[in-house]
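Hi R.,

As promised on Friday, here is the backbone we talked about, encoded as structure tokens. Could you run it through your design pipeline when you get a chance and send me back a sequence?
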């Protein structure tokens, strides 16, 4: 699991905020997003210094953990923000994804996927019988499918833009630090 910022760096940002500086001031000084500064401060407040070691960009969670989080949201009425903080998760989007998978496929939807995830699935060859079935779709179903595909394309474009923006920001910080 790779982290973008070291635990020492996160702790430095938190200590700066504890001295009375706002998350925006900390973000400007350290060249980070204000939401990251806020999240690290909350994690530090909840679980102390050790919680800053566990903030990861990419993490795999087992079935039991995912189920525990999902059921706490569904049964206990925990909000996404509360669940994110309680279970020390990076974003609410992870929980939203798990909830969607759970509602769609039950516990099986939360099973860890094997192998590398592909951003786009390989197109399947359509059998002649399957083509006939597609012709029977109603106009509403087709419009719904188009809307879904457009949303998927928009999401992929947004992911790419965010990745490029993040890489550009990292390069700027590297240039700044090498000039100093």
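Update: got your reply. Pasting your designed sequence below so it's all in one thread:
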């Amino acid at each position: 699991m790779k982290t973008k910022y070291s635990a020492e760096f996160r702790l430095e940002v938190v200590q700066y905020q504890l001295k009375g500086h706002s998350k925006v001031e900390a973000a400007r000084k350290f060249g980070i997003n204000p939401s990251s500064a806020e999240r690290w401060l909350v994690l530090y407040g909840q679980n102390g210094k050790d919680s800053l070691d566990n903030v990861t960009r990419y993490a795999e969670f087992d079935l039991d953990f995912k189920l525990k989080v999902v059921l706490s949201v569904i049964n206990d009425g925990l909000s996404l923000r509360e669940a994110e903080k309680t279970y020390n998760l990076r974003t609410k989007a992870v929980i939203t994804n798990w909830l969607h998978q759970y509602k769609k496929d039950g516990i099986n939807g939360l099973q860890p996927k094997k192998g590398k995830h592909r951003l786009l699935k390989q197109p399947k060859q359509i059998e002649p019988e399957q083509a006939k079935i597609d012709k029977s779709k109603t106009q509403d179903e087709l419009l719904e499918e188009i809307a879904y595909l457009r949303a998927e394309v928009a999401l992929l474009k947004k992911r790419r833009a965010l990745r490029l923006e993040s890489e550009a920001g990292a390069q700027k910080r590297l240039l700044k630090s090498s000039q100093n």
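One thing I noticed while checking it: Residues 139-179 form one domain.

Thanks again,
M.
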